[in-house]
Amino acid sequence: SSADDRPDITVVVTACEDSPALRACLARVREQASALGAEVLLACNVDETALDETSRAEVARLVTRVVYEPEPGKSNALNAAVGAARGRVVAFTDDDALPDQGWLAAITAPILSGSDEVSGCGGPVLPVFPHGGPPDWLRHLMGRTRSTFLGPYHFLGHEPRAYSETDFGAGLPFGASCAFTREALRAHPYRPELGPNRETGLAGGEDTEVALRLLRAGHRLRYVPGARVHHPVHPDRMTLDWVRRRHRTLGRETVLLQRALGDEVPDADTLREHIRTCEGHGLRRLLRKPRHKFRRELRRISLEGSLEEVLSW
Length: 313
Fold this sequence. Notes:
By secondary structure, the chain is of the alpha/beta class. It is built from eleven helices and eleven strands. It has an eight-stranded mixed sheet, with helices on both faces. Helix 8 (240-261) crosses helix 11 and helix 9 (268-279) packs antiparallel against helix 11. The longest helix is centred in the C-terminal third of the chain and has 22 residues, at 240-261. The model has no long low-confidence stretch (mean pLDDT 90).
């Protein structure tokens, strides 16, 4: 097709299987995309034969195009979608997320306007818990800390602002609510060793790595408070065991992220010393509140995950 009839925006949703949540997401995305003349790409991280014929046909009717990427790993599916995208801005949300009305217009507006030379945007991602709220044990252990551990959470306030490298701790654009120029993503593709992957067992990190790499390359990224996405928390995650397992994986992802960015990775002895510090007993530990003990335990588990990754090289 000619450049004149290409859409300004491509919306990408990745998935490994058909589901009611995926169809609800696509229905909402399609409505917003239609209003803006955008295209919707579904990137399936499976071989085409993994979906039955009925699912393939029904899902295809909800999107502009379907891209199949059989190589396991969300990053591979994301890169395939970016390669196939026709829009000069590519927006992303998760297959089990529900963007608010106006999400697509809000997340892409700062890039399309061109006024601040913005290359990417991120918006709030808010967890939706079963039965109306987080479990009591989480409230007890976390106090007023805004982190949930149980599902994607990204909120930097109600005012627009620029992202910077110092936002690494508070959060950079989340994959469930973000948009970038196609050019930026083709120059800085997602790293296959990061991101959800059914073979490696990893769960994330690809979005953080891309955002940091873009910032370091001089790109401007903007937080857009009006581009809100709600992300359900699966009931399977509502346990302490799941939180502990997730933090072990998080430790592995931290090391992989450091390596991908070319940052210094702590050696095994340094990590062991940090673990010993977390395990240390004494009067101060005995006096700690349960939530402080819990956070220290999670810190230790993350460090153990990092050590496992370092020792596996």
